[in-house]
Description:
Elements: E1 2-9, E2 12-20, E3 33-39, E4 49-55, E5 60-65, H1 74-81, E6 87-89, H2 92-103, E7 110-112, H3 113-120, H4 129-137, H5 157-168, H6 170-183, H7 187-208
Parallel strand pairs: 2-5, 3-6, 6-7
Antiparallel strand pairs: 1-2, 3-4, 4-5
Helix pairs in contact: 2-7, 3-6, 4-6
Amino acid sequence: MTRKLSLTADGRNVVVYLHKGDLPADVTFNGSIAVDSETLGLSLVRDPLCLVQLSDGGSEIHLVQLDRETYDAPNLKRALTDPDKLKLFHFARFDIAMFMRDLSIICAPLYCTKIASKLVRTYTDRHGLKDLTKEVLGRDISKEQQSSDWGAAELSDAQLSYAASDVLYLHQLKAKLDDMLARENRTEIARSCFDFLPTRAALDLAGWEETDIFAHS
Protein backbone atom coordinates (compact mmCIF):
# COMPACT_ATOMS: atom_id res chain seq x y z
CA MET A 1 0.00 0.00 0.00
CA THR A 2 1.32 3.43 -0.97
CA ARG A 3 0.17 6.77 0.39
CA LYS A 4 0.94 10.06 -1.35
CA LEU A 5 1.46 13.60 -0.06
CA SER A 6 2.23 16.70 -2.14
CA LEU A 7 4.53 19.43 -0.81
CA THR A 8 5.89 22.72 -2.06
CA ALA A 9 9.41 23.39 -0.81
CA ASP A 10 12.30 25.51 -2.04
CA GLY A 11 10.19 26.55 -5.03
CA ARG A 12 9.74 22.91 -6.00
CA ASN A 13 6.66 20.73 -6.12
CA VAL A 14 7.58 17.49 -4.39
CA VAL A 15 5.54 14.31 -4.11
CA VAL A 16 6.15 12.23 -0.99
CA TYR A 17 5.31 8.52 -1.23
CA LEU A 18 4.88 6.39 1.88
CA HIS A 19 5.38 2.68 1.23
CA LYS A 20 4.58 -0.02 3.78
CA GLY A 21 7.15 -2.77 4.24
CA ASP A 22 9.48 -2.17 1.31
CA LEU A 23 10.39 0.10 -1.57
CA PRO A 24 8.46 -0.88 -4.71
CA ALA A 25 10.61 -2.78 -7.21
CA ASP A 26 10.01 -0.22 -9.97
CA VAL A 27 11.37 2.76 -7.99
CA THR A 28 14.75 3.88 -9.33
CA PHE A 29 17.13 6.66 -8.35
CA ASN A 30 19.20 8.87 -10.62
CA GLY A 31 22.63 9.59 -9.16
CA SER A 32 23.33 9.86 -5.46
CA ILE A 33 20.63 9.11 -2.89
CA ALA A 34 19.89 11.27 0.14
CA VAL A 35 18.99 8.97 3.03
CA ASP A 36 17.68 9.42 6.57
CA SER A 37 15.90 7.27 9.12
CA GLU A 38 13.46 7.65 11.99
CA THR A 39 13.62 5.47 15.07
CA LEU A 40 11.64 5.09 18.27
CA GLY A 41 14.50 6.74 20.18
CA LEU A 42 18.26 7.28 20.08
CA SER A 43 19.47 4.09 21.76
CA LEU A 44 21.29 1.59 19.55
CA VAL A 45 20.41 -1.10 22.09
CA ARG A 46 16.78 -0.34 22.86
CA ASP A 47 15.08 1.56 20.05
CA PRO A 48 13.90 0.02 16.75
CA LEU A 49 14.31 1.40 13.26
CA CYS A 50 10.88 2.53 12.01
CA LEU A 51 11.19 4.55 8.79
CA VAL A 52 13.73 5.16 6.01
CA GLN A 53 13.60 8.19 3.70
CA LEU A 54 15.22 8.35 0.25
CA SER A 55 15.53 11.03 -2.44
CA ASP A 56 17.69 11.51 -5.52
CA GLY A 57 17.16 15.27 -5.37
CA GLY A 58 14.32 15.20 -7.90
CA SER A 59 10.58 15.70 -7.52
CA GLU A 60 9.91 12.50 -5.57
CA ILE A 61 10.76 11.44 -2.02
CA HIS A 62 10.15 7.85 -0.97
CA LEU A 63 9.51 6.85 2.64
CA VAL A 64 9.52 3.20 3.69
CA GLN A 65 7.65 2.32 6.88
CA LEU A 66 9.30 -0.92 7.90
CA ASP A 67 7.71 -4.13 9.16
CA ARG A 68 9.46 -4.34 12.52
CA GLU A 69 8.58 -8.01 12.91
CA THR A 70 10.72 -9.09 9.97
CA TYR A 71 12.60 -6.11 8.45
CA ASP A 72 12.17 -7.97 5.19
CA ALA A 73 12.75 -5.19 2.66
CA PRO A 74 14.92 -6.53 -0.18
CA ASN A 75 14.36 -3.61 -2.57
CA LEU A 76 15.24 -1.05 0.08
CA LYS A 77 18.31 -3.02 1.11
CA ARG A 78 19.40 -3.24 -2.52
CA ALA A 79 19.19 0.55 -2.90
CA LEU A 80 21.10 1.18 0.33
CA THR A 81 23.94 -1.19 -0.61
CA ASP A 82 24.22 -0.30 -4.32
CA PRO A 83 27.99 0.21 -4.83
CA ASP A 84 27.35 2.60 -7.71
CA LYS A 85 25.14 5.00 -5.73
CA LEU A 86 26.62 7.42 -3.21
CA LYS A 87 24.38 7.69 -0.14
CA LEU A 88 24.14 11.14 1.46
CA PHE A 89 23.37 11.45 5.18
CA HIS A 90 23.44 13.97 7.98
CA PHE A 91 25.04 12.13 10.91
CA ALA A 92 25.46 8.90 8.96
CA ARG A 93 27.06 7.18 11.96
CA PHE A 94 23.71 6.63 13.68
CA ASP A 95 21.65 5.72 10.62
CA ILE A 96 24.06 3.15 9.22
CA ALA A 97 24.45 1.55 12.67
CA MET A 98 20.67 1.12 12.75
CA PHE A 99 20.81 -0.39 9.25
CA MET A 100 23.54 -2.80 10.36
CA ARG A 101 21.55 -3.86 13.39
CA ASP A 102 18.00 -4.15 12.00
CA LEU A 103 18.44 -4.54 8.23
CA SER A 104 21.68 -6.57 8.48
CA ILE A 105 23.38 -4.52 5.75
CA ILE A 106 26.46 -2.35 5.38
CA CYS A 107 25.40 0.85 3.66
CA ALA A 108 28.10 2.23 1.35
CA PRO A 109 29.54 4.31 -0.26
CA LEU A 110 28.76 7.23 2.04
CA TYR A 111 28.87 11.01 2.43
CA CYS A 112 28.02 12.73 5.71
CA THR A 113 27.14 16.42 5.70
CA LYS A 114 27.68 16.63 9.48
CA ILE A 115 31.26 15.43 9.20
CA ALA A 116 31.88 17.73 6.23
CA SER A 117 30.42 20.62 8.22
CA LYS A 118 32.69 19.92 11.20
CA LEU A 119 35.73 19.81 8.94
CA VAL A 120 35.09 23.18 7.28
CA ARG A 121 32.74 25.19 9.51
CA THR A 122 35.28 25.34 12.32
CA TYR A 123 34.05 28.83 13.25
CA THR A 124 30.92 27.35 14.89
CA ASP A 125 29.82 24.43 17.03
CA ARG A 126 26.34 24.38 15.47
CA HIS A 127 26.38 21.47 13.04
CA GLY A 128 22.77 20.25 13.28
CA LEU A 129 20.86 19.92 10.03
CA LYS A 130 18.59 22.86 10.85
CA ASP A 131 21.51 25.23 11.56
CA LEU A 132 23.54 23.99 8.61
CA THR A 133 20.67 24.35 6.15
CA LYS A 134 19.86 27.81 7.45
CA GLU A 135 23.39 29.15 7.12
CA VAL A 136 24.57 27.43 3.97
CA LEU A 137 21.35 27.46 1.95
CA GLY A 138 19.27 30.15 3.65
CA ARG A 139 16.41 27.68 4.18
CA ASP A 140 14.45 27.03 7.35
CA ILE A 141 13.39 23.48 8.18
CA SER A 142 11.12 22.53 11.04
CA LYS A 143 12.23 19.96 13.63
CA GLU A 144 8.84 19.98 15.41
CA GLN A 145 8.02 16.33 14.66
CA GLN A 146 11.49 14.99 15.47
CA SER A 147 10.40 13.56 18.83
CA SER A 148 7.02 12.22 17.71
CA ASP A 149 5.97 8.54 17.80
CA TRP A 150 7.59 6.98 14.74
CA GLY A 151 6.42 3.54 15.83
CA ALA A 152 2.76 4.41 15.29
CA ALA A 153 0.87 2.22 12.83
CA GLU A 154 -0.34 5.30 10.93
CA LEU A 155 1.93 8.31 10.54
CA SER A 156 0.46 11.81 10.30
CA ASP A 157 0.89 14.17 7.36
CA ALA A 158 3.01 16.36 9.65
CA GLN A 159 5.33 13.42 10.32
CA LEU A 160 5.62 12.62 6.62
CA SER A 161 6.39 16.25 5.81
CA TYR A 162 9.05 16.37 8.51
CA ALA A 163 10.62 13.09 7.38
CA ALA A 164 10.75 14.34 3.80
CA SER A 165 12.42 17.60 4.85
CA ASP A 166 15.37 15.69 6.29
CA VAL A 167 16.43 14.50 2.82
CA LEU A 168 15.16 17.46 0.81
CA TYR A 169 18.33 19.57 0.97
CA LEU A 170 21.18 17.05 1.31
CA HIS A 171 22.20 17.22 -2.36
CA GLN A 172 22.41 21.01 -2.23
CA LEU A 173 24.32 20.90 1.05
CA LYS A 174 26.81 18.43 -0.40
CA ALA A 175 27.50 20.73 -3.34
CA LYS A 176 28.20 23.70 -1.06
CA LEU A 177 30.25 21.69 1.43
CA ASP A 178 32.30 20.12 -1.37
CA ASP A 179 33.31 23.61 -2.48
CA MET A 180 34.33 24.48 1.08
CA LEU A 181 36.26 21.23 1.52
CA ALA A 182 38.15 21.85 -1.72
CA ARG A 183 38.87 25.46 -0.70
CA GLU A 184 40.41 24.31 2.60
CA ASN A 185 42.22 21.31 1.04
CA ARG A 186 40.24 18.89 3.19
CA THR A 187 38.50 16.80 0.53
CA GLU A 188 40.68 13.73 0.96
CA ILE A 189 40.52 13.69 4.75
CA ALA A 190 36.73 13.99 4.49
CA ARG A 191 36.61 11.02 2.15
CA SER A 192 38.73 9.00 4.56
CA CYS A 193 36.31 9.86 7.37
CA PHE A 194 33.32 8.81 5.26
CA ASP A 195 35.01 5.50 4.37
CA PHE A 196 35.64 4.81 8.08
CA LEU A 197 31.99 5.29 9.05
CA PRO A 198 30.92 1.61 8.75
CA THR A 199 33.74 0.66 11.12
CA ARG A 200 32.75 3.46 13.52
CA ALA A 201 29.15 2.24 13.44
CA ALA A 202 30.27 -1.34 14.09
CA LEU A 203 32.27 -0.13 17.11
CA ASP A 204 29.16 1.65 18.41
CA LEU A 205 27.12 -1.52 18.13
CA ALA A 206 29.87 -3.58 19.78
CA GLY A 207 29.89 -1.38 22.89
CA TRP A 208 32.52 1.30 22.15
CA GLU A 209 29.97 4.05 21.47
CA GLU A 210 31.34 6.45 24.11
CA THR A 211 34.97 5.29 24.14
CA ASP A 212 37.65 6.99 22.06
CA ILE A 213 39.89 4.02 21.27
CA PHE A 214 42.46 6.39 19.73
CA ALA A 215 42.93 8.35 22.96
CA HIS A 216 46.13 7.91 25.02
CA SER A 217 44.32 7.08 28.26
